[in-house]
Inverse folding.
C-alpha cells in the first residue's frame, strides 16, 4: 500500500474542494476577485485623487496611495461576494449553529443593551447639565462604547 493510500485510510476521505473556493458563476473565485478588486481599488484611488483637490503629480500620488491601501480590502470584498461557500475546503455546513456564532449573538445582544442604556443615560446627563457637545464626539463615544462592550462580552462568553 502506498503512503497516499495509507494516509487516506487513516484520516478518512480528503476534501478535494479548492482552498479559495469556486465562484457562483463558475471558475475560481480568486481568479475573479483579484482583477475585479484591483479595478475597484484603482477606481477608488482615482476618486480619492479627484476629491483631494490636488494638482498635477499630487493627484497621482494620492490616487496611487489610496489604491494601494484599498487593494486587499477590495479583493476580499469581491471574493466574499462571488464565492460559493459550499465549495470552500473545511467550511461548516451550518455556521450559524457553531459555538462561535452563539458567542457572537450573545455579545451583540448585550452590547446593544449596553449601548442603549449608556446612550440614554448620557443624553439625560447632557440634557440636565445643558452641556454642549459636538455631534462627532457623541457619535465617536457611542461607537467606542459599542465596540468595547461587544469585545468584552465576546471574550467573557468565549471563556465561559
Amino acid at each position: 500500500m502506498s503512503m497516499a493510500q495509507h494516509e487516506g485510510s487513516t484520516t478518512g476521505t480528503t476534501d478535494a474542494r479548492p482552498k479559495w473556493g469556486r465562484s457562483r458563476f463558475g471558475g475560481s473565485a480568486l481568479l475573479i476577485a483579484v482583477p475585479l478588486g484591483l479595478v475597484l481599488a484603482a477606481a477608488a484611488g482615482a476618486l480619492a485623487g479627484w476629491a483631494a483637490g490636488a494638482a498635477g503629480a499630487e493627484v497621482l500620488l494620492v490616487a496611487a496611495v489610496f489604491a494601494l491601501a484599498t487593494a486587499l480590502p477590495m479583493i476580499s470584498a469581491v471574493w466574499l461576494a462571488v464565492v460559493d461557500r459550499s465549495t470552500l475546503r473545511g467550511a461548516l455546513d451550518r455556521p450559524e449553529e457553531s459555538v462561535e456564532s452563539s458567542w457572537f449573538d450573545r455579545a451583540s445582544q448585550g452590547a446593544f443593551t449596553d449601548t442603549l442604556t449608556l446612550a440614554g443615560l448620557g443624553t439625560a446627563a447632557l440634557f440636565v447639565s445643558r452641556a454642549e457637545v459636538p455631534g462627532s464626539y457623541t457619535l465617536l463615544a457611542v461607537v467606542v462604547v459599542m465596540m468595547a462592550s461587544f469585545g468584552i462580552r465576546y471574550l467573557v462568553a468565549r471563556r465561559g
Observations:
- Residues 116 and 142 are 9 Å apart (CA to CA).
